[in-house]
Every structure is written in structure tokens, then in C-alpha cells.
Design brief:
heterotrimer; A: about 240 residues; mainly alpha; 11 helices; about 80% helix; about 0% strand; C: about 230 residues; 10 helices
């Protein structure tokens, strides 16, 4: 291979790859946060069984879980441009919409996908909370808001934690798909480098390694937090 | 939590933003189509498209800002006001005109087929024969381009392989996964000049837009349909640039030949 | 609408490719995954270590990266060109996609099967040992069927993910549903309509798949249902 690691450094590709990795993590984190917000709201709706909204949530999760992420991304990117802009403006991101469009559309797409999976995790966690706890709290006359804040939410977070970890791993890997619409994240940077230097092996191998590092570091992080919030099993 | 999320996204979106300033012309380009449009690791765009853009900006007295975007996403992104114009070797076609407007054509594409020197297609001397001979072979094109549409329409018996970028198509051509590649001659010449293109050659036939309308009516600057004032300004500027030979000079610099079109 | 008349036959063509890719990669991937799951349970540190790192590598990187690495990356290596069977696989996008999808699903399948195998009640295994069953027979008659039954819901999920994964093959020139959808979109600019039809095709496919899995589940669990 005439193309060595030295040329990699000189071509400025190392910096580009690191920048790409930062964008990847940024998209992942932003999407995860929005996805969790969506997931919590939708999970609660399904758990409470609110008529009408519950069916809507079902439709949403079925579509996202049944349709390939690539198709959803293409659809959002090439299609409903005005729709996304009006959503963004509604949330106060109007100016951002004009400026950082690829980033915005990416976050919207990945959040929608992440949110559907988070919904299932939240719903499962809520269902796993022992009914007795909630009934006892109600018997004690605690107001619903306090029941939610003191009994439901903490337990839900703890039970959902491993599931949330899985959703994160999936989310960060899904960010690679947005390379097809041109966002300069890690995968696209690797593609550009591979194309312009005609050396796909090095670039995609490095991209794979960087993704591996991201997943490894976040796995270690999650394990740490998990050991903190999971109480020691009573013997 | 939502406030923090807002701040986080705002800060992070700074990665991909440039504030819209007065007198700024944002130009969308592919950045992966040498020698028309190349972006290096830092995102600086060079090539024929970059030169035409710079010439236009100088004439219009505005600051040029290039936004790199995947080719088949250029038109939707223009419609979404991601940038003001498209300069990316984009041909003027009837289908595209339904979506966006174009300036006058300022350059002409010469489209050629590239094959291995040892290929049985290399010696063919007329276009209809070539199109028939392509049946049973695989042809690589870039997705969403006039070349893709041309092959879909006129060589339906050939196995068509669409790639996201020309680079990917050329990689597959070099490794032997496709028997032929079809794109414009200037971009393919770039491939033939590289070491991996040593065993390849053009089929000596120039397929111009006069052969079939799918190939479009020349290269133009893409403009939104409601931006009529901008179109008028750009048309005037382009005519001046063609008349004083700057486009011709730039074309000879990048393509070693003059591909400029006379102003109409 | 004339668009639907144009789009549907084209997308149905893609459906065949999608199905072919799915069936082939699941067939290969399941067996690979089973092998890996068994390797994990092995006492030999090298063997179980290999299975563990394989799983880690393929589950920790995006499928798209694996696909590109195999298609473009391996295609670059001269040795691959020289070995005829290897080149046969790597030279064509659809065969490459099957390889990448199979390797990917093998990693996830091995985790699912490992969970299933671990969940087999140890009492049953000991009873089989007491009966004098050989290792192979024990696996074939007791552990494997019980593991499959346990793992079926999770594996059903993985199958749906496989179907969705085939859409990535469109990025390496393969013409399955998504590939045809992209081509149609660039011809007609009817973006929303084309992708909506394609999306519906996938939805129907996945719903049918989940329905089939549920039927198999019910059949395997029929001994737990109350007697009629």
C-alpha cells in the first residue's frame, strides 16, 4: 500500500475524522435526549392507556420499528422540507433551521427513531413497577404529582436503565446512516477520504475503530452509573 | 432539562452553521466531483465550479460561501433555502426545471464512456452500436445525474449500477466490478490520469446533449423559482464572464479544453 | 394515480431482492450465530475469547460501516481478487450484502441464543446427563429446542432488524426496494409518494413476519395453554 499512515496525517484527515466523530457524538447525544423526551411522554400515554393518543403512539412506534431507518431519513431529508421547517420553527429553532439544516434534519430523524424505541423501554419499565407501591401511596393520600415524582419516576428510571443503554447503542450506530444525506459526520468523512485517496480499507477500518471506541466508552460509562443506581441485592 | 437540551443543540449546531450576513452568496456544491468540485479535509472547495462561483461573486460584489452537499440532495436543499444557488456541474433538464430554475447555460458537457483497454467495447465507433453493445454489460453511473437517466432510457438491457459519488463508481471500475462507466469526459479524464486509471480508456465517442434530451441543455446555475431578481443578475454576470473569456480561461485551466458556451 | 401505477411494479421487483437478501443472510447468519454461541460456552479461552470479541466488534459498529468495509475495503486488496471464490462474493453488491448482513446478524443471534441456552433449566440438563445422553444428543434433544423457544421473541425482533438492514444494500448498488425507490425518486421527484409506498411495503413485510413468528411461538408453547 503506497498510501501510508504518514499521508493520513499530512492530508489533514486525522483532524477531519476527529471532527466527524465529534459531529457523530453531537448528533447522537442530541437525538438521544429528544428521543427520551418523546419516549417518556409516549410511554406514559401508553401506560395510562389514554384512548386516541394511545393508538396514535402505537401507530408511530409501529411505523418507525417497521420501516428501515434509511427510508425514514431519505423521506425526511428529500421530502417534507416545509414540514420539518415548521416543526423546527414551532420549537423555536427557526433560525437554526436555515443555517444548520443537515444537522437539524438529522437530529429530527434520529430522535424520531430513537424515541420509538425509548417508548417501548419506558412502557415496559412503567409496567414493571409493582402495582402495590402505587396503591399504597394512593392509600396514604399522596397527591398524584408526588406519587409520580417520588414513587414512579425513580423506579422507572432504574428499571429502564439497561434498556436505555441499548437504545443509546442503537442510536449512536444509526447516526452513520445520515452520511447518505451528506452530513459531515464520521461515516461521511471516511467516505470522502476513501474516495479522494482511493484507499477505502484504511478509512473505513479507522471509522469502525472510532465507532468501537465510542460504544466501548459509553458502555463503561453506563456500567458505572448502573452500579451506582442499582441497590445491592438483599441476601 | 429542555433548556439545557436547547442550549446543547444550539451550541452543537454551530458545527454546521455560518451566520447569514449581508452581501453573502451561499453556493451549494457537491465537493466530490473532481475536477469540477473538490473539497479537501478542511472543507475548502476548489475546482472549476469553485472558480465560476468566485468569478460570479466578484462580478456581483458579494462574498462567496460554499456549502458542500451530496449531489442528489442539492435540489431539495436549494428549495429548503440551505443556500442561494447551485454551482455543481448541474445540467439543465426539463425534469429539473419543474423543481428549480436555471441561469443561462455557461458550459457544455462532453460525455464519454470509459472502459478497460482490453474490453470488447473499446473499439466501437458509433453511438447506437455502443448502446446496443452495452446490453449484457454493467455500466456505472452517478445516481440522480443526467448520465443515469440517459442510460436508463437508452440502454435498458445493460445492468445499471448507481453510485452515490463518482469516486465510488471509479473505485468499482478500477476493481472490475463494472465493465464501463459513463459520466462527463472532464471528470473521467481525472480518473484516467491517476495510476489506477492506467488500464482504462475512453470509447472514442462524444455523446452530447444534442443526441438525446435526457442529457440536458448545458450546465447552468441552479436558482429557486421565485428568485427571479437573482436569476436576472446572474444571467447578466454570466454573459459578461463568457464574453470577456474568464470562463474559457478557467475551463482551460481545469479541463485543458474550452467547454464554455456562447451567451444566449 | 398514474404514479402509483408506475411505482408499484418497480418496487415489487425490489421486493424479490429484499426477500432474497433476507432469507440468504438469515440462513447463513443463524448457523454462524449458533456456532458462535456454542463457542462462547466452550472452556477453551481462545475459542470463547474469539466469540466474545467477534460479538463485540460486530455489535459495536454500525452495519453501514461493516458493509462499506467489506465491499470497498476488501475489494481493494489484491489477494481477494486472486482467490476466485472470494472474489465471486466480493465482486457483486448483492452477494457482498449477504455476507455483511450474515456476519452482522451472527453476532446478535449468538447473544440471543446464548441467553436462550443459559435459560434452559439446569434440572433438565442434569436429568439428561443422568439418563446417559451423549453431549450431542443432549444438545439436540433438550438444550437447543428449549433455547429456541425461549429466544423466539427476541429472535423475531432480530429478523425484523434484518429485513430493515437489507435497505442498506442500496448504498452499494443493489436494487432492492430502497434502491428502486431512490431511482424512482430521482426520475419523478415525487419524493413523498415514492417513499411512502416503499415504506408501506416494508411495513407489510414486517407485520407478516411478526405474525408468522407469533404463530410459531404459539405452536411451540401450546403445552402451556389451558386444556380445552
Amino acid at each position: 500500500m503506497e498510501f501510508g499512515l504518514m499521508q493520513l496525517w499530512e492530508g489533514g484527515w486525522v483532524g477531519a475524522i476527529l471532527r466527524g466523530a465529534c459531529v457523530t457524538v453531537a448528533v447522537g447525544v442530541a437525538s438521544m435526549i429528544f428521543g427520551l423526551i418523546i419516549g417518556t411522554i409516549c410511554g406514559l400515554i401508553k401506560w395510562r392507556g389514554i384512548v386516541g393518543l394511545s393508538q396514535l403512539v402505537d401507530f408511530y412506534t409501529s411505523v418507525v420499528r417497521g420501516v428501515p431507518e434509511l427510508l425514514i431519513i431519505y423521506l425526511l431529508f428529500f421530502g417534507s422540507i416545509e414540514f420539518v421547517k415548521s416543526v423546527a420553527t414551532a420549537f423555536g429553532f427557526g433560525d437554526l433551521a436555515d443555517a444548520g439544516y443537515p444537522f437539524l434534519i438529522t437530529v429530527v430523524a434520529i430522535s424520531a427513531i430513537s424515541g420509538a424505541y425509548s417508548t417501548e423501554v419506558v412502557r415496559g419499565a412503567l409496567a414493571a413497577i409493582p402495582k402495590g407501591h402505587i396503591e399504597a401511596a394512593m392509600a396514604l393520600g399522596l397527591p398524584s404529582r408526588r406519587i409520580f415524582a417520588r414513587i414512579i419516576a425513580p423506579q422507572m428510571l432504574r428499571i429502564a436503565f439497561p434498556g436505555i443503554n441499548n437504545v443509546w447503542q442503537t442510536t449512536i450506530k444509526d447516526t452513520a446512516l445520515v452520511s447518505v444525506v451528506g452530513l459531515q459526520e464520521l461515516m461521511r468523512t471516511a467516505s470522502i477520504g476513501a474516495g479522494s485517496t482511493r484507499n477505502p480499507l484504511i478509512f473505513y477500518a479507522i471509522a469502525a475503530l472510532v465507532y468501537l471506541m465510542i460504544t466501548l466508552v459509553s458502555q463503561i460509562g453506563f456500567n458505572r452509573v448502573a452500579s451506582l443506581i442499582t441497590p445491592a441485592k438483599r441476601s | 432539562m429542555k433548556l439545557k437540551a436547547l442550549a446543547l443543540v444550539a451550541a452543537l449546531a454551530g458545527f454546521a452553521t455560518t451566520a447569514q450576513a449581508e452581501g453573502q452568496l451561499k453556493i451549494g456544491t457537491e465537493g466530490a466531483y473532481p475536477p469540477w468540485s473538490m473539497a479537501d479535509a478542511n472543507g475548502t472547495v476548489t475546482g472549476f465550479d469553485a472558480d465560476v462561483g468566485a468569478l460570479l461573486c466578484a462580478k456581483l460584489d458579494m462574498e462567496c460561501v460554499f456549502v458542500v452537499q451530496a449531489f442528489d440532495g442539492l435540489i431539495p436543499a436549494l428549495q429548503a433555502k440551505q443556500f442561494d444557488i447551485i454551482i455543481s456541474g448541474m445540467s439543465i433538464t426539463a425534469d429539473r426545471k419543474k423543481e428549480i430554475n436555471f441561469s443561462i447555460g455557461y458550459a457544455e458537457l462532453a460525455n464519454k464512456v470509459v472502459v478497460a483497454k482490453s474490453s470488447d467495447l473499446a473499439k466501437i465507433t458509433d453511438i447506437p452500436a455502443l448502446l446496443t453493445a452495452l446490453g449484457g454489460h454493467s455500466v456505472g453511473v452517478q445516481a440522480g445525474t443526467t448520465h443515469a437517466h440517459f442510460m436508463e432510457k437508452l440502454a435498458p438491457t445493460a445492468t445499471l449500477k448507481s453510485y452515490g459519488t463518482l469516486d465510488e463508481m471509479q473505485i468499482d471500475l478500477a476493481t472490475g466490478r463494472v465493465d464501463a462507466g459513463f459520466a462527463d469526459a472532464s471528470a473521467l479524464q481525472n480518473f484516467l490520469d491517476k495510476p489506477e486509471g492506467a488500464d482504462f480508456q475512453f470509447v472514442d465517442l462524444n455523446i452530447t446533449s444534442s443526441y438525446d434530451p435526457t442529457l440536458g441543455e448545458g450546465i447552468g446555475v441552479g436558482i429557486r423559482q421565485d428568485d427571479t431578481a437573482l436569476k436576472a443578475k446572474i444571467d447578466t454576470a454570466l454573459c459578461e464572464l463568457i464574453a470577456d473569456g474568464s470562463i474559457k480561461a478557467s475551463s482551460e485551466k481545469w479541463f485543458k479544453m474550452d467547454i464554455s458556451r456562447p451567451c444566449q | 394515480m398514474e404514479l402509483i401505477q408506475l411505482a408499484v411494479p418497480v418496487l415489487i421487483q425490489g421486493l424479490w431482492m429484499t426477500l432474497t437478501l433476507t432469507v440468504l443472510s438469515v440462513a447463513v447468519g443463524f448457523n454462524l450465530g449458533l456456532g458462535l454461541a456454542l463457542m462462547r460456552g466452550s472452556g477453551n479461552a481462545l475459542i470463547s475469547g474469539f466469540a466474545r470479541y467477534y460479538s463485540f466488534a460486530f455489535r459495536g459498529t454500525p452495519l453501514l460501516v461493516q458493509l462499506f468495509l467489506i465491499y470497498y475495503g476488501l475489494g481493494q486488496i489484491k489477494l481477494v481478487h486472486d482467490i476466485a471464490p472470494l472474489w465471486w462474493v466480493i465482486s457483486e453488491g448483492s452477494r457482498c450484502a449477504v455476507l455483511a448482513l450474515a456476519l452482522n446478524t451472527a453476532a446478535y443471534t449468538s447473544e440471543i441464543l446464548r441467553g436462550g441456552l443459559n435459560a434452559v433449566p439446569i434440572g433438565l440438563v442434569e436429568a439428561a446427563k443422568a439418563c446417559g445422553m451423549s453431549r450431542v444428543m443432549r444438545f439436540r434433544r433438550i438444550e437447543f429446542p428449549l433455547a429456541i423457544r425461549q429466544a423466539l421473541p427476541a429472535y423475531g425482533n432480530e429478523l425484523v432488524l434484518m429485513v430493515k438492514g437489507t435497505s442498506l444494500a442500496s448504498t452499494i448498488t443493489v436494487l432492492e426496494i430502497t434502491g428502486y425507490a431512490k431511482r424512482l425518486m430521482s426520475q419523478t421527484f415525487a419524493i413523498f409518494e415514492v417513499f411512502a409506498i416503499a415504506g408501506m411495503l416494508y411495513l407489510v413485510l414486517n407485520l407478516a413476519l411478526i405474525g408468522a413468528i407469533r404463530m410459531v411461538e404459539r405452536r411451540l408453547m401450546r403445552h402451556t395453554r389451558p386444556a380445552v
